[in-house]
Design a protein that fits this description.
Blueprint: H1 6-26, H2 30-52, H3 57-73, H4 78-84, H5 87-112, H6 117-139
Length: about 140
């Protein structure tokens, strides 16, 4: 069962490096200051849904839809990243794009098969905390 948690560890380290190294090194423009919490909010909604829902086939379809929406929304910044980011940061973003749906798949498996309800219940809190951090930290920084 530990294999279901590996994507979350990889995503956590990649997100932390992107946020604490690349973003702080170059700063974020207004589009990213708004867009990154929007990305996180789509993840929050997906995890909140499964934390509050019973694992039925109908709810699984809704969860898949929320996950698909999130996977599309996170790509919205790439036209900005193309100009603003160094190659290494763009590579890290590609890793995050790959791991994003894998985390959703792992969470969905844990939820649908009842493998670890506690892990699923805490995900929305973790993501919500990250949204609050993003809004507070980046709104206190000057625009680029």
């Amino acid at each position: 069962m530990a294999i279901y948690y590996i994507p979350f560890v990889v995503q956590g380290f990649a997100m932390a490096f992107d946020e604490l190294y690349f973003h702080r090194k170059r700063g974020l423009g207004l589009w990213e200051k708004i867009g990154h919490p929007v990305d996180s909010f789509t993840v929050f909604l997906s995890y909140l849904f499964i934390a509050l829902s019973n694992p039925t086939l109908e709810n699984l379809k809704i969860y898949i839809g929320l996950c698909a929406l999130s996977c599309l929304v996170i790509t919205k910044d790439e036209f900005v990243h193309k100009e603003a980011c160094p190659a290494a940061e763009n590579w890290l973003h590609s890793v995050l794009f790959v791991i994003h749906p894998i985390c959703f798949l792992s969470a969905g498996m844990l939820w649908f098969y009842g493998l670890n309800a506690q892990f699923i219940k805490y995900q929305p809190y973790l993501i919500f905390g990250f949204i609050v951090y993003q809004i507070i930290y980046w709104s206190s920084r000057e625009r680029r």
